[in-house]
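Figure 2 data, in text form.
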Amino acid sequence: MPEEILFKTEQASTRAEAAAYLRALADKLDADGTVHLSGGPDALDMTIPERFEFEVKAERETSKSGGTPELSLELEFEWKEGVEAEAGGGSLEIT
């Protein structure tokens, strides 16, 4: 199935700024799950269902030329449109 990008933004950020975005997202998840994303000329409203797949991934990527490795921490929420994920899963702890 081809991927359709509905919204994308990328910017330099401080830890404090990123924490503020994540707190705002957490508040929306605690409420009704409706999230309004906006960045530049793009905007998108989506409602995150009560249950979904939640993926956390930490990566180190090294270029073929051997430059400085790039580290990333990715958080992904994934669900099928109109379908909630089934109960279950693992255990994630952030300490």
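Caption note: Strands lie at 34-39, 42-47, 53-61, 70-78.
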